[in-house]
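Sat 14:20. Reprocessing the chain from the morning session after the first attempt stalled halfway. Input below, unchanged.
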Amino acid sequence: MSKHYALLFTSALSCAAFAQESTTRPILSQRNHPGALRQAPPGRMVKVEIPHSECLTEAGYAELLDRIALNREQYGIPTISDATRGAQPFFIWPTRPRADFTDYGYYTNNNFVDHNPLVNGNLLDWNCGTRTYDWASGNHMGTDIILWPYAWRRMAEEVMEVVAAAPGTIVDKRDGYFDLQCANNGQPTWNGMVIEHADGSTAIYMHFKNGGITTKGIGETVVEGEYLGLAGSSGSSNWPHLHFEVHDNTNAYIDPFAGPCNSFNGTTTWWQQQQNYKEPNINHISTHYTSSEFYQCGVQEITYEQSNFMPGDSLIMRCYYRDLDNNALTNLVIRDAQSNVVASWDFYSPWLFGATTWAWWYYLIDNSWTTGNYTFEATFDGETFMRPFTVGMPIGMEEIATLDFSVAPNPANESVRIAGLPSHRALLRVIDATGRVVLSEQTNGITHDLGLAELSEGVYQLQVEADGGVGTRRIIVAR
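Finished this time. Tokens:
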């Protein structure tokens, strides 16, 4: 069932699992800076919880081993002997962003391996924390790397690419399964592959997007960093992500993260460069015209993002965090076109820890806001993140940067063709005379046909955002 809601972000994830209902609260712990023209705005914070849910079961892993044995026989894949055994692999990170991705971040690590063999909430990760989960009959035994934010939209945009963490041989490959799963029942219908390394250890890559997998087949080899597939939500999953699971040459579990509570390989890391337990970041900073969220599992998110505001509009400012710790400081600033500080305030996170969280603040745009360009800035963990926006800019006036593209016919009736786009991945917005976004689409090529049948006759602004730039064209709908 789909929902419209303003303060409750409902989502769930298995193998990287979100709670059915997240926690939200007003932001109280913030301080306005002296000299700012405006007082600190009210805001809210949402923390996405992690429930227990079934992932790859012991029975599922046993079935996988049987498949690999059959594949060895069918494809002539030799078993690695002691005489031919190579050295233990050291992994690079198994995901990367699409080559033209320009945002600040695209994932969080929501779950690690559970080192406590007991179930029903007895949790222990490699660093002696509880960033993991179990269920009634099993433990989570991999690392979950989830798309964040806008997971379903970014899955469709193919933002997260899965790559070989180490060289090896493909000993199992699965594709063709439904990749918009919203069920946590342990089903084995996952797309992905298993890579065997020179020492006989294996890495399992699960939950790929259907049809996005490499053309290489079982028995062929891959090199470190080679493209394997795209993050999806196939199998036991209801959030696009990669489940990365490692076993040694005896099929015993390995946790590639070395740490004081790693009960498998202890202080021996399997990473070339091990990430810190916490990697604070703002993955995305944005401005919106409403506080509402539209979320439905398996459906691309409606983001309500907007960069042009008119008097009477709500200005919603958001930060989507990775690994936000208790009392972590974010300094928020709004600057005008001359870099003067219009508003500045501090936000301190009230929660103990959140791997996947977001916060938002709001102003009402009234006549005290002068027409012009502004920038919403967030300084967090030593880095500044920025989002430009405008107030009161008339239709047809360009923002941020000029992109060269054509629009025809213009005036238009039912559709226009936009040609010469700078990227295969561009965001299109049609804005009416009041500054409101009335149509939004993502392109898949340098030419895109935009339907206008639902729009009334009138003058609109077509805004194209790609490769860090924004360009606008005036379009006329006439019938």
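Residues 279 and 323 are 6 Å apart (CA to CA).
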